[in-house]
Write a structure and sequence with these properties.
By secondary structure, this protein is mainly α. It is 71% helix and 0% strand. This is Solute carrier family 66 member 3.
């Protein structure tokens, strides 16, 4: 391949990589603002289980990329997304009254200890090779949970369309950059499914928000008119 083509390809990959990273710095921000001042009854379509599964999936993927010494800009977005997911989790826990729950504290400690054990290699990093395939069903179930939540509530007010639109686009971009950089089959499968499911969440949210904006057609039966008769004496 000509040198200029190689350089152009490398530039395109780097440009997309950094565009994705910069986008992911704000990816969940619209969703966070949607949740910030919501009451428990208003948080429809979002569950603790979905957020927890996303946090676990992002954590595993970040550790896997780190362990394989992939270029930092190919997985830096996971770190940005994790911070935003923690904030989302905080608001949902607060809204549902679980912030001071003992189970929340126990789960948080288990998570922190597990991540630390991987980083200092108490748990062999090779274990991640077996955990990465779990991320795909985790991601799928998490996104399916969002969709099911919206369908059950017939409402998507707590879902940010901006967040899910950006999610679909960044996953598509990441599929391309991984294909050009390492062609890691685990990552390619993960990103391709994520594109489909993020688009499905977006489509469901758009559908219910359009439904909410559609004016209700009055079906009230019109009362029959009564002809009045006036008599002049």
């Amino acid at each position: 391949m000509d040198t200029w083509k190689v350089e152009l390809q490398a530039f395109a990959v780097d440009f997309i990589n950094w565009t994705i990273v910069l986008t992911c710095l704000f990816l969940k921000v619209p969703q966070i603002f949607q949740l910030k001042n919501k009451r428990p009854s208003e948080i429809k379509g979002i569950s603790l289980q979905a957020i927890t599964m996303e946090i676990v999936g992002y954590s595993i993927m970040a550790l896997y990329n780190f362990k394989n010494k992939y270029t930092l800009n190919t997985y830096l977005e996971y770190l940005a997304l994790l911070i935003q997911e923690y904030i989302m989790l905080f608001y949902v826990l607060r809204a549902k009254g679980h912030l001071a729950n003992k189970y929340t504290s126990i789960t948080s400690v288990i998570y922190i200890v597990s991540m630390s054990a991987f980083l200092i290699e108490i748990i062999p990093m090779e274990t991640l090779n077996y955990l990465v395939p779990i991320c795909l069903p985790l991601s799928g179930v998490a996104k399916a949970t969002y969709i099911i939540g919206m369908i059950k509530a017939s409402n998507s007010d707590a879902i940010s369309m901006e967040t899910w639109g950006m999610s679909a686009l960044t996953n598509a971009g990441r599929f391309f950059t991984v294909f050009m950089d390492s062609a890691d089959k685990h990552l390619l499968l993960n990103y391709s499914v994520s594109v489909i499911l993020s688009s499905a969440v977006l489509g469901t949210a758009v559908y219910y928000q359009l439904q909410a904006q559609t004016p209700m057609i009055s079906t009230r039966r019109r009362e029959p008119s009564v002809r009045r008769h006036y008599h002049v004496d």
